[in-house]
Amino acid sequence: MRVELDEPKCVASGQCVMASPEVFDQREDDGVAILLEERPGEELLDGVREAVAICPAAAIRLVEE
Amino acid sequence: MADTLAGATPDAAPEVPEYPMPRDLRCPLAPPPALEPLRDEQPIAKVRIWNGSTPWLITRHADQRALLTDPRVSNDDHEPDFPHVNAHRAAIAPHTPKLITNTDAPEHTRLRRSVNAPFLVKRIEAMRPAIQKTVDDLIDTMLAGPNPADLLTALALPLPSLVIADLLGVPYKDHGFFQENSNRALDSSLTAEEASAASRALGQYMDTLFREKLDNPGDDVLSEMAGRVKAGEMAHQEAVNMGVAMLIAGHETTATMISLGTLALLQHPDQLALLRESDDPKFIAGAVEELLRYLSIVHSGLRRVAKEDIEIGGQVIREGDGILFDLHAANWDPQAFPESERLDLSRPARQHNAFGYGPHQCLGQNLARLELQVVYGTLYKRVPTLSLAAPIEQLPFNHTGTTYGVKCLPVRW
Q: Name one Pfam family in it (chain A) (predicted).
């Protein structure tokens, strides 16, 4: 599974960081999301799925490879 | 304007209900009862607002999420048919500069990113020890004072005011002034002139303060914005308006969640016991989400306007039509939250729309969550005998503010 972050859509609410801090972080100057792990391990996927579900900008996708 | 008399023309819709809708005073924490049949049978329905216009009301969780992330749905309140919340907002809209609250992408994205830094998850989390100390101190003071006490003045109002004043760099000694004027600026029971006077007073106050920060910056958000203004990344007036918006938004909402949340928990002793006995930060964080969902205090509907025709749920929302989103209706949508009328602190509630949804979702939500986690995780442990000191029927509920809450909450212990 691969995580896709549509950065131009990101509104920097930080919800992904709250749901999945192992996979996401925020840029310090404007809060825009940073993808730390493009291919997170199985144990992190629940957090990523929550991040996908709660991202207010619908800017995160989890895609099958 | 459409004819509204039921049956006046063959294709006339049934009577168009007024919005906002009245609550059932016997169930003061539940959403207005008329929302439920609308959500079940007419989830995309016309309603009538204060100026006689008839925007669409969206009541289902899934429809709200679809439309609030749809780029054809605009937050530009300069649009002539924008369904303003009251006459005051309609009157000031043409004169309001561009803010995160009245713009769309890409302008909104630029503005939002310029004010996000103070609300970064890590920066907010770093405030936890200081907020814990403030909560402990306020509870100490309450317990040392007269019993019963008003929880609003003892804890619910001072905590968010202290926190936002400290974060922004606004002197807390002015809290009486900014609380009073914030409430008046948002009170739909006042005339447009009265509300405008309160907004102006806040604007002038913030402008003076901001000029001081330009000359003598400190370690606070206003000074950070002053730096951006000096660097040419932000206009002076933008920064002043953002300062006012953060000051207003930063205390009334959180204060209401503290007082109304406590009232809801006192009405549900089994749930209160779960919270009092838990030391699990995840459970406490989940309880905050459930109380946000259950109470959905922002009760006057999010407001938008369609920039193009939009087909949804068998209806066509026409270009220029106003669109309202009732957050309480969506957060009590049984399709999204089974047995939604039950306060259940153990349920997964994180996908509620209490902070809105889409790019305009609440800027301060992470700060609000932190304050509520600390209060809900502390107050009932430290004051296990906390109870209401007046019957719920006698509590003065505020039906005319931006948020729905109580004007005081007498408690004893």
A: Fer4_13
